[in-house]
Design brief:
The chain has 598 residues and is an alpha+beta fold. It has four domains: 54-164, Rieske Iron-sulfur Protein; 170-292 and 420-500, FAD/NAD(P)-binding domain (3-Layer(bba) Sandwich); 304-417, FAD/NAD(P)-binding domain; 509-594, Enolase-like, domain 1 (2-Layer Sandwich), CATH 3.30.390.30. It has 14 helices and 39 strands. It has a five-stranded antiparallel β-sheet. Strands 16-15-14-20-32 form a five-stranded parallel β-sheet. A five-stranded parallel β-sheet has the order 22-29-23-24-25. The longest helix has 15 residues, at 476-490. 46% of the residues are buried. Belongs to the FAD-dependent oxidoreductase family.
């Protein structure tokens, strides 16, 4: 038996093109306010041979058909690139072998019920189509067709697909864009972060061909915001999520440096700071958070920063090099900035009100282990105190005075003491906002106002994992999913959100992965060695595991995320069974997880 693999267009996307007699895509119809509008997907004729250039094709023998058991994955080399070969339920599948997000090897990920989950950041891809099903990231995997002949496995694939290891799903284009009134749009997206961009892309992927306008206070097109604190010297073009040509190609308009100051829900009008008004049919609010500022004496002095833009991050790196840095707040941002600057600055001091970093999120024991790692990298902590004054010399920061009386030399200060939802402009709009300023949405990301959706860091939504408790989850992955769910429901799909929260942080070349929602946990069960920074921490509430974190034990967090996504419950007593759990530490076997709980 032979297995042959070749690149094909997924059936799901092929069906969208509904071939006309001339071989081009027939126009489909989407109704806007009852009015039929036509759209075309990109007109790629579908031929029986998906390779337009025979010279771009490679074929190689990679293994015997019996080499893979059900549930196994293998990374196979074709000479000019690799593919991921998968066997599940007796069938072979093949897709790209690298996660399009940051390039993680998917062979080290988790295979479960028709999809593979990235071991690093939790993105999920269908093994049948290669489509991205959970985030982060924007692109899908290339899919290769599998054929079985004789008893050898051959892969036939496009060299280009093997080299790029990513695939952008087909998208519709806007029809007659030049005929639109500039002050009117069908979909208006306020905010150009992950939620806003994924919403716009999903609309186009689903065949929506009317006008889409995104507006942002930022001067840049959407970019990879987590890198602002993890890779601070990155320039905007290096961290852009999509190039300028992408937005032109798919008619997604982005208005930069444009601030919405009011929304008239009765007349469906957004009012901008400069007085410009734009009508909309559907609205997505994805404005994110606004960082809190210090309220102490001297807060206006120069060289005190909240990291909000690439320019902020670049400026801090430049000012901090060989200088004294004070970071206020042991938040994710504060800790990541401290780690990044530790080798560049003369000194890095971190001021925090709590006694241990990350105590509320990771627990005291994990927090102390992380703190120890920072101290071994020359970061000095000043805990259980606050800043009382920022002193200047010739207008620039010179010293940071703490309430404990300690005076720290400081040439630059980074503030990471939390954030508040950027929803102040909506207080008189009639859109439901809770006491903390968060927009309240249902499982379909809809607000209380018809046609108005909200997504990202500024919302509370029902989390299926926690019995539909309304929660705020300000994670990069979750913002992506919010945007997708909002777009699908703008098109009346009736899709409810059910994803498992997943995040990561990177410090000194080490990453902590985290899945679930541990708010209110009452105990932490730790397996492994905290001193060696090789551990798994299970966060429990009563007898139920509600979240998991790990360092240097991939893909345990992705495995637990899959178990939770399947609706199973992991009990505290299961993770406390040391003899059972030690099996994973010896062999990497996690099969014990799949059969536990309800």
């Amino acid at each position: 038996v032979e297995v042959k693999i070749e690149v094909v267009i997924p059936e799901k996307e092929r069906s969208k093109e509904e071939m006309s007699p001339n071989g081009k895509a027939s126009p489909l119809i989407y109704k806007v306010n009852g009015t039929a509008r036509h759209y075309h997907l990109e007109e790629h004729p579908i031929a029986s041979n998906p390779y337009h250039n025979p010279k771009d094709v490679v074929e190689a023998s990679v293994c015997h058909v019996k080499d893979l058991e059900n549930g196994q994955m293998r990374e196979v080399d074709l000479g000019c690139g690799k593919a991921l070969l998968i066997k599940e339920s007796g069938e072979f599948h093949a897709v790209g072998h690298k996660c399009p997000h940051y390039g993680a090897p998917l062979v080290k990920g988790v295979l479960s019920k028709g999809r593979v989950r990235c071991p690093w950041h939790g993105a999920c891809f269908s093994i049948g189509t290669g489509d991205i099903e959970d985030f982060p990231g924007l692109d899908s995997l290339p899919r290769f067709q599998v054929k079985i002949e004789k008893e050898k496995v051959y892969i036939r694939a496009s060299k280009q697909a093997l080299q790029t290891q990513r695939r952008t799903k087909m998208m519709a284009k806007c029809i007659s864009l030049s005929n639109y009134n500039l002050s009117s749009t069908n979909v208006l997206i306020i905010g150009a972060g992950a939620a806003g961009l994924v919403c716009a892309e999903t609309l186009r992927q689903e065949g929506f061909s009317d006008r889409i306008v995104m507006c942002t206070m930022d001067r840049h097109l959407p970019y990879d915001r987590p890198k602002l604190s993890k890779s601070m010297d990155s320039h905007p073009e290096q961290i852009a999520l999509r190039p300028k040509e992408f937005f032109r190609t798919y008619d997604i308009e982005v208005l930069t440096e444009m601030q919405v100051v009011a929304v008239d829900i009765k007349n469906k009008v957004a009012v901008f700071k400069d007085g410009f008004k734009m009508e909309y049919n559907k609205l997505l609010i994805a404005t994110g958070n606004t960082p809190k500022a210090l309220s102490c004496k001297g807060k206006e002095v120069e060289n005190v920063f909240n990291i909000r833009t690439p320019e902020d991050a670049n400026r801090v790196v430049k000012l901090a090099t060989s200088k004294n840095v004070v970071i206020v707040g042991a938040s994710f941002l504060g800790m990541e900035v401290a780690a990044y600057l530790a080798e560049r600055a003369h000194s890095v001091s971190l001021v925090e009100l709590e006694e241990v970093p990350f105590k509320k999120f990771f627990g005291e024991r994990v927090g102390r282990a992380v703190m120890k790692m920072f101290e071994s990298n020359r970061v000095k902590f000043y805990m259980q105190t606050e800043v009382s004054e920022l002193r200047e010399q010739e207008g620039k920061l010179k010293e940071v005075v703490l309430k404990s009386g300690k005076v720290l030399r400081a040439d630059v200060c980074v503030v990471g003491v939390g954030a508040v939802p950027a929803t102040g402009f909506l207080k008189q709009s009639g859109i439901n906002i809770d006491s903390k300023g968060f927009l309240v949405v249902n499982k379909m990301m809809q607000t209380n106002i018809p046609g108005v959706f909200a997504a990202g860091d500024a919302v509370t939504f029902p989390l299926a994992l926690r019995n539909n408790k309304k929660v705020n989850v300000p994670h990069w992955q979750m913002a992506h999913m919010h945007g997708r769910i909002a777009a699908l429901n703008m098109l009346a799909h009736g899709t409810e959100i059910s994803t498992v929260p997943y995040l990561w942080t990177a410090m000194f070349g080490k990453s902590i992965r985290y899945a679930g929602h541990g708010e209110g946990f009452d105990d932490v069960v730790i397996q492994g060695d905290l001193d060696e920074l090789k551990f798994v921490a299970f966060y429990t509430k009563s007898d139920e595991v509600v979240a998991v974190a790990s360092m240097n034990y991939d893909p345990i967090v992705s495995k637990v995320a899959e178990v939770l996504a399947a609706g199973r419950t992991i009990r505290k007593r299961d993770v406390e069974a040391l003899l059972v759990f030690s099996l994973f530490f010896r062999t990497g076997d996690m099969s014990w997880l799949t059969g536990k709980g309800s």
